[in-house]
Design a protein that fits this description.
The structure is a homotetramer. Chain A contains twelve helices and 15 strands. By secondary structure, the first copy, chain A, is α/β, with parallel strands linked by helices. In chain A, the strands form two sheets. The first copy, chain A, has an eight-stranded mixed beta sheet, sandwiched between helices. Chain A is globular. Chains A and C meet through strand 9, strand 10, strand 11, strand 12 and strand 15 of A and strand 9, strand 10, strand 11, strand 12 and strand 15 of C.
Chain lengths: ~350, ~350, ~350, ~350
Amino acid sequence: MSSDKKIRVVLIGGSGYAGYEVIRWLERHPQAEIIGVYGPEHELGPMDEFYPLLNKQVNLVQELFEPGKLAALGGDVAMLCVPHKVAMSYAPALREAGLRIIDWSADYRISDQALYEKWYVPHTDPEGLATAVYGLPEYYADKIANAPLVANPGCYPTCTVIGAAPLIKAGLIEPDIISNAVTGISGAGRTPNLKFHFPERNENFEPYGVDGHRHMPEMEQVLTDVTGKATQVLFIPHLAPMDRGMLCSIYATPIGDVTAEQLLDVYQAAYADKPFVRVRETILPATKYVSGTNFCDVAVRVQKGKVIIFSALDNLLKGASGQAIQNMNIMFGLPEDMGLY
Amino acid sequence: MSSDKKIRVVLIGGSGYAGYEVIRWLERHPQAEIIGVYGPEHELGPMDEFYPLLNKQVNLVQELFEPGKLAALGGDVAMLCVPHKVAMSYAPALREAGLRIIDWSADYRISDQALYEKWYVPHTDPEGLATAVYGLPEYYADKIANAPLVANPGCYPTCTVIGAAPLIKAGLIEPDIISNAVTGISGAGRTPNLKFHFPERNENFEPYGVDGHRHMPEMEQVLTDVTGKATQVLFIPHLAPMDRGMLCSIYATPIGDVTAEQLLDVYQAAYADKPFVRVRETILPATKYVSGTNFCDVAVRVQKGKVIIFSALDNLLKGASGQAIQNMNIMFGLPEDMGLY
Amino acid sequence: MSSDKKIRVVLIGGSGYAGYEVIRWLERHPQAEIIGVYGPEHELGPMDEFYPLLNKQVNLVQELFEPGKLAALGGDVAMLCVPHKVAMSYAPALREAGLRIIDWSADYRISDQALYEKWYVPHTDPEGLATAVYGLPEYYADKIANAPLVANPGCYPTCTVIGAAPLIKAGLIEPDIISNAVTGISGAGRTPNLKFHFPERNENFEPYGVDGHRHMPEMEQVLTDVTGKATQVLFIPHLAPMDRGMLCSIYATPIGDVTAEQLLDVYQAAYADKPFVRVRETILPATKYVSGTNFCDVAVRVQKGKVIIFSALDNLLKGASGQAIQNMNIMFGLPEDMGLY
Amino acid sequence: MSSDKKIRVVLIGGSGYAGYEVIRWLERHPQAEIIGVYGPEHELGPMDEFYPLLNKQVNLVQELFEPGKLAALGGDVAMLCVPHKVAMSYAPALREAGLRIIDWSADYRISDQALYEKWYVPHTDPEGLATAVYGLPEYYADKIANAPLVANPGCYPTCTVIGAAPLIKAGLIEPDIISNAVTGISGAGRTPNLKFHFPERNENFEPYGVDGHRHMPEMEQVLTDVTGKATQVLFIPHLAPMDRGMLCSIYATPIGDVTAEQLLDVYQAAYADKPFVRVRETILPATKYVSGTNFCDVAVRVQKGKVIIFSALDNLLKGASGQAIQNMNIMFGLPEDMGLY
């Protein structure tokens, strides 16, 4: 695109934590601008009333989402930040209005419709699903570039795939891994619930979703696709008493003799030209070292006959908003990292 | 009472944070036992399902509160831990069943019915109100001893009154004070609300209720009553990102020349025989130093022509459950501090 | 012992977080009393200056540790709460003074002297080591009862062994497990360090000690000993932003076909008569549910061909002070759980 | 300056929390670049080893500060981020090297040398002090524009002055105020200390510096200077368990009858053209609403015959790094808010 024309972004559903982040970051983006924010009837109003932090920085008002108005907007891309099921009910109208779509829900992440329906609900937009591209730029940048609809990945799959894919692909670990994952509470969204009530979560560390979390089939699908090996993931998430950040401690069985140095080389080669993956040696990944950034930090160790991979990211950025902007940059031919430092 | 007969406590409303604390502490109490827990229809069941921490420690089940069953229970005292308005609707039946009452709500704290009704709702039990005693043992122990109904004080009034009363009473400060108060989030109760959602409160410090908090008339009434001087309080509460603890920084205007040493003497004399007030000199009150205890710590300074008083307590203990047990001990002729260390 | 004579406890090193807890809990203990607190020259003084929370509750002063004074004290047992290496330099004098010893350091936990010296320092008290008993009451109660010296276990080994031992012993999982462990920061002790500086740890989740933590050989030794199978543990600890609490997520390979129900039965049988182990079914272990208690909560799941065990405890209680008191109770013929609720 | 030449910034002392922030924000600044980072001998090395978060974002190395090297650097301005006393020992050499200076220490904030020396140490650069300008842009922008040395204000004075100055200046409150202030722990710097050890601060709220904090004479000087009325401040700071953020609850006595509406008008007029002050009406200032921004939020209430002002900012940004960049923009003729959203 010409340098004097900015990408015109339509934001659908700006009142969640990730919606808020995407507003903050797009405000700084030199080649994009938000031209409208739309949401459901019970969540309308100035964005700085939802997020007082935005006051005097942005002047956006969330208006009622009405499909009929979309065509006249003249937007280039919709950031579709609504829950699954709602997302696929909005997507066709966005498509018809000529907008490319970056969907943040799970609706277009699982390409096998039957598998999606097993874990979620009946799919109502198979046409959209057929053309959707999984938006993990480190592995799908070429397809993302021309995709009409990009399914922005889940935070846990992003963290686990970036961590485990290089070694599975290289045939250095068995495609059967354990991802012991930890997230901050913003990942649970903004709807109040006893589970996320401050006194229940503060000073508490707790596993959840241990009998099957919906991000599990997603990460298995993507790992299998990008490595070429049918991969199984035992995925156990936990909640830590903090706002943001995610760390996966991934355990795997090596194939043959491997050394940490050898594995490190594989990571360095795999991510040499990826601006948002940092391969760590002595300083291990930690959530604070990626907080407020779009980076995913990875490190690897060999011990006791196992391979251990650490992978950390900010669940609201590389796990949501930052990745969405990274996808947008690629879709519109901009440098992948524009506006993301 | 004879040493071999324990106080038989009926707990009404055990599913809140303070209810939970009173269960834990009464389990340790050598002269009291909980003989039943009762609550509303939507909150019935084993207490260790509400509070997994209680599992294998207590075997209590919250059953439906039915006034007709009370007389047959043979209890000595009811801990009435339900919201205001509900409390005064339950109290008459408890009275008829021969139970003395320790009420944790605001319903019996404000002795002036009109003032109560200005800040809360119409009062439905004026008979109970007429005989209620304000349960701040440091100032009302004599009356508490024989009271049929004790109104367990609010956390903020407890903290502010213990802090300010000695100097107002001694005529050393003007009866017109500022109480800048800070509380942990458990003080807001256990009902989920966006305001108390973890990501809204964590890493956040915020004033609230600045246009008039209901604890203000309560603390003015009590300070006026115990000091004999009509006292006015500008009360500004704040929320700090922590589970428990309360600290009031109280600002006052001295009457005449005062020194910190002189004021310290007043505190030491006022609280010399009070087991749960600790007068501090070099180490200032801090919430962590009273956490998990029934203590209220106080300290005083003179600076820039003002008197500054610091007062700290655990909002769930001296601010609620611990104080209720302290009141119970006094009502039944036991040492005031029994079971409270 | 006769019921009217209390156990006379000598506390060596009371100024750490666990020392503080043991003081608080022994104050409540009906059959024990602290008769003296001793420490190094730079840490002397009233305990309530180290821990303002103890003010008006205990009147203990940490005095200089001088071996010559010990015999005259007439104590029954020493709680030896000093760092490794120092502990074994003090133990002989305590022994000579006729005191039984509960040592909180690592000095007597690893029975194989060469293994100890590989991970720590040269051992200077092999005589003490020869008679030491590992103080995990769920597995060594008989030996603890008569031991002259009990090695109070590390927090991580306690959590991992209670979690994994029943299934290894029953031959239902391979004796080659992964323990992904998470602890609150109090576990790191009270010495200031950039690593534990508030702004470095708050809002941070981080792995550490991944190249070999000293608790690893300890847990391998104990698991091997109590299960009868040579056990290997890949142990990866992490720091979570909270004061206290520990949770181990343990991953194992089942032997043959197993079901969650079958494994649950094994746990219920193994811990039926153990007062401080709670086997959980629907409510998973979480640090908040054991905080401030001496319980260790365990739960088990089968998923994706793996067995997952969750085990949680309070690192300062079941992981340190509470376990020490539990050991003391057993050593002196008292009910195991006396004073521990 | 011409748009194609960036401001060349020399950073002295980049290893503290505020130094880290200034690096992150200057990286985004369209018209400034860091050309060198210098520090003391024991703190040299790549900035991304001090702050792993900076990895792959900046490539800066802290080198030894040697005055002789400065002239050759060709820098425009020095950000002098070292402790007081050290700052004034470095400033003369920076001046001689032709650099303008933004000093973050207290060394040039108090214009009365005797007053400075009463609270700090003997002043060794009276020449620099004579030309220094106090860097609070909302009140000193004109002088800052041409100043050779700008004294970047303390966080507490910034928060208190922005909050209180308009009403004192307008003669609507007495020039004798109480500033009850609360800060996150990053304000204490990065040097480990028991006071700031995680388990000492977490779940703790505590007053400190109550017998006289060094920011008090600074805020009195500035309030007096900008309002034209000799102002006295009773300043009581507290520590809250969070990383960043500051909130001052300021209490004042009105002069004559005032209404909240009237006072609000004064604030709106005072800060109408100040990009980083947000005057709030219904939503009160809270630390989370300014976190990560350069804003200072203010609100005012009238109650019980007193005026209450709330003022909040991010101690690392408007309280340090952000304000320094704001000053730099003004010094070099750029829009005041460039690079600060």
